[in-house]
């Protein structure tokens, strides 16, 4: 009887790792600074996401590989713990060059991490026969990818041409924040719909 109970337990999804990813994403989205220091550090969010992926990796090779990209994001996030704020167009040339180089690198690894998270959750959803959740995950990734690319391009354009900041950068960032809310809601629903489901 004990062996049978253990088998039953193993045949159900443990989606609690998605809660860790949700908390990590929230840490990264929120950005409050005091004297240049990030009081809600992105690296804490990256650590939480890594913890979530470790708890989910048994369900998909995508989630297992996602830890690699999440670890790179963790390293990159350390560079943003402290920053000096300058009005647009007034930052030193070396800092603008540094930011222009780092921004696309950060975007690439963020999107790679996001791809492995969302498509890994889609794998879990298919195992649990929740196909609509798998489709929603792929849709959220497409929206996040487009907003991430547009957001990165708009910020870089605003750094090079400050006059573009108000008409272009601000609306793009506003749309990106709305998409972030949908991403968080998807993670919340995914954890609720998948946790404890038989596979």
Short description:
The protein is mostly helical and 199 residues long. The chain has helices spanning 2-10, 17-29, 42-56, 61-77, 93-127, 131-160, 165-194, and strands spanning 33-34, 37-38.
- Compressed to H and E, one letter per element, the order equals HHEEHHHHH
What ranges have pLDDT less than 50 throughout 5 or more consecutive residues?
Answer: 1-8
Number of E-type strands: 2
- Would you tell me the overall average pLDDT? 86
| Physical arrangement of strands within the biggest beta sheet | 1-2
Helix content, binned percent: over 70%
Major sheet summary line: 2 strands, antiparallel
Question: Structural class of the secondary structure composition?
Answer: mainly alpha
Number of helices: 7
Strand content: under 5%
The coarse overall form would be elongated
Oligomer: single chain
